[in-house]
Amino acid sequence: MKEEAAQSNQGAARVQVQVSGCSAQDADTFFSGLNSVFTSDRSQDDAPRPSEGAQPMVWTATADVSKEPAEAAPLPLTAPVTVTLQGGQWAVARLHAGLTSVFSVERVGSTSGDQEREAQLRLVTRPTAA
Question: pTM here?
Fold first, then answer.
């Protein structure tokens, strides 16, 4: 019984992340920022590749937000990045909050279900104190 509860809680701490509407360089910067705050299934060696045509690219990862977010330094983006988060309400809120140490984050859309939430965020470079 405890094992089932642990697996259920572990699944509740995972968030599906989709990055789109940006260059491969900015997607790579986003994933570096994500990995500096939480762990994900996307390794540092798995750099997003540019699109080979006019097709829009979507890069994905699964983030584990079961631990407190680490403090991270802001990272520069060359243009706004659109990120879609999907998961449990608590997990999506925690990932959203964790990203604010790395980027300026604006929620541009959100849909909530019974136990799941989808949030669309717009990320830009976070200003640093002068």
Answer: 0.84
Per-residue confidence (pLDDT) for residue 44, from 0 to 100: 75
First-last CA distance in the chain: 53
The larger pLDDT score, comparing residue 112 to residue 80, is at 80
The answer to whether position 55 is within a domain reads yes
How many distinct structural domains can be found in the chain? 1
Kindly tell me if the per-residue pLDDT of 52 is higher than 80: no
The answer as to whether 30 is a domain residue is yes
Q: How many CA atoms lie within 13 A of 27 on its CB side?
A: 22
Residue 130, domain member (yes or no): no
Nearest CA to 123 among 78, 58, 91, 88? Answer: 78
Q: How many residues does the chain have?
A: 130
